[in-house]
Amino acid sequence: MKLTLTADIFQLAQVFTIARGSRTEAQVLTVTISENGVSGMGECVPYARYGESLASVSAQINGLKMPISRAALQEALPAGAARNAVDCALWDLAAKQAGMPVWQLAGLDAPRAEITAFTLSLEAPDKMEAQARINRARPLLKTKLGGGSEDISRIQAVRKGAPDARIIVDANEGWTPELYARLAPVLLDLGVEMVEQPLPAGQDDALLEMDRILPVCADESCHDRTSLAALAGKYDLVNIKLDKTGGLTEALALRDAAIAADFGVMVGCMVGSSLAMAPAILVAQGAAFTDLDGPLLLAQDREVALWFDDQGIHPAPPALWG
Fold first, then answer.
1. What is the mean pLDDT of residues 131-156?
2. Residue 61: helix, strand or coil by DSSP?
3. How far is 251 from 241, CA to CA, in rounded Å?
4. d(Cα 235, Cα 163) in Å, to the nearest integer?
5. Strands, E, within 45-97: which ranges?
6. Burial class (CB within 10 angstroms; exposed 0-12, middle 13-18, buried 19+) of 68
7. Which residues participate in catalysis according to the annotation?
8. How far apart are CA 308 and CA 26, in angstroms?
9. CB 3.0-4.6 Å disulfide test: which of 23, 82, 192, 297 passes with 187?
10. Is 63 buried (19+), middle (13-18) or exposed (0-12) by CB count in 10 A?
């Protein structure tokens, strides 16, 4: 068993801005694991918010002793980007060796297309209205918010630009309890269905005392199954991202545990290519919200890419993954 690691850069179609900053490219790490002439691939996106960098994640991956199984990997690396890329590559390798798709190996039902959100970059209200108008035919829009006084104007502008779309919002830890109390009724009136991570992770105990009239989804506060106990009573949903869980193996387990604990499920992504989204589609089956639009934000994707249409994001072709 041989592991090969490469760093890849995908230019974005336009500048993408959230409350923490802007970017013009997606920097990803691609893992290829080969055995007896068969190869599997996985992708991860190191995320500075979680103390990750291309260098640190590369060191974790290159430090693994080969061969390694998926079970051993769960102990060898912590939840995070490094384990994600290796875990997904091992799943892909196993599928190609067995001649059957990952969903069958995992004992899942055959996946179907899932409607995915399309994310609008954080901008001034007039620019967000323009973004919304261009994407008004998309059934679900996700709006990045910044925590400032313009957030209401931003959502009003998005609603004006896309009067028929469903809307969810992502505060990226940028709100306070007082701001939630002020914004939530207005956003509900505008048809917003949910807000992701309004308060900073680690400072979200205030959610226990708040009347959450606008459902709240844990993102930065939820990584893997060990996160769930601390989320009870604070959050209505959890956002499962494979770069947080450390791969498909833990993502599937987290989904089942979250549902058993009465959390709604959202499946999200970092800004990456189709290779990063492909395994997440299996987790997203039946989710309350799917946000796997990373490839739609790129100027150019993988040579073999996922298919998006009015039915949503389709399961990956075997030539891509799984």
1. 92
2. helix
3. 7
4. 28
5. none
6. middle
7. 144, 241
8. 20
9. 192
10. exposed
Helix (H, G, I), strand (E, B) or coil at 275: helix
Question: Is the CB of residue 236 less than 8 Å from the CB of residue 264?
Answer: yes
Cα 305 to Cα 322: distance, rounded to the nearest angstrom? 13
Secondary structure class of 179 (helix, strand, coil): helix
Per residue in 229-264, pLDDT (tens digit) is 999 999 999 999 999 999 999 999 999 999 999 999
Alpha-carbon span 140 to 291, nearest angstrom: 9
Query: How many CB atoms are closer than 10 A to CB 105?
Result: 14
Mean pLDDT on 16-35: 86
Q: What is the rounded distance in angstroms from the CA atom of residue 180 to the CA atom of residue 182?
A: 5
Q: Which two tokens stand for residue 192?
A: 């917003």
- Please say if the pLDDT value at position 12 is more than 70: yes
One-letter amino acid of 246: G
**DSSP secondary structure of 128-164:** HHHHHHHTTTSSEEEEE--SSTTHHHHHHHHHHH-TT
